[in-house]
Amino acid sequence: MDSKQRFETLITVESELAKRADNFGVLTLSKAERLYVLASWAKGALDCNGFAYFFLGPCNLPEVIEAFEQLGFQKAADAIRKAIEEFPDARPIGDSEELKRWVESQGERLASTWNRLCEPIWEITTEEFDEALTSFLRSRIDEFKLETNVSLLL
Predict the structure, then answer these.
(1) Can you count the helices (H) and strands (E) in the chain?
(2) Measured in Å, how far apart are the chain's first and last C-alpha atoms?
(3) Alpha-carbon Rg of the chain, whole angstroms?
(4) Residue 137: CB partners within 8 Å, gap ≥ 6?
């Protein structure tokens, strides 16, 4: 399978799982399915807009960290832990407006720190990430309930 076919299949899997989570709740996904979706979402959010945007999203941070660990990206998982430590009492702010105000009040120091912490995530290439998702899917295929044909990935 070429990288384009693999990418398209992985995106279709992500889309199917995200749609199921939106329609029926994230808890209807198996643990493996949740980790897959969370890793994909987090990588996209962090690549595009960094931690300020990432923390605006409704996510289970321990599971996001676990997702990166399960995919073999320990430095990325550690970076998220360190970014969390920047919050008062190491507790992310849940209210989006309050979070925005807090981020703005921290100024360049926080932006610089979070940008530096994002580097291990930004350094994960699309090919590396897709290969990790493929390996994860292969290793836990019995935990996925998919309509998408993933036989080309197996």
Answers:
(1) 6, 0
(2) 10
(3) 16
(4) 10, 13, 36, 144, 150, 153
Amino acid identity, position 28 = T
| CA pair distance 61, 66, nearest whole angstrom | 8
Per-residue tokens: 99: 């979070």
Q: Given the structure tokens 């384009």, which residue do they identify?
A: 4
Closest CA to 10 of 45, 39, 49: 39
What kind and span of H or E run contains 53?
Answer: helix 31-54
Rounded to whole angstroms, what are the CA distances from 12 to 5, 65, 139?
Answer: 11, 23, 18
Tokens of 117: 């912490």
Find out whether 10 and 82 touch, Cβ atoms under 8 Å: no
Confidence label for 3 from pLDDT (cuts 50, 70 and 90): confident
What is the identity of the amino acid at 149?
Answer: N
Other CB atoms within a 10 A radius of the CB of residue 120 amount to 18
User: What pTM, to 2 d.p., does this model score?
Assistant: 0.92
Amino acid 22: pLDDT:
93
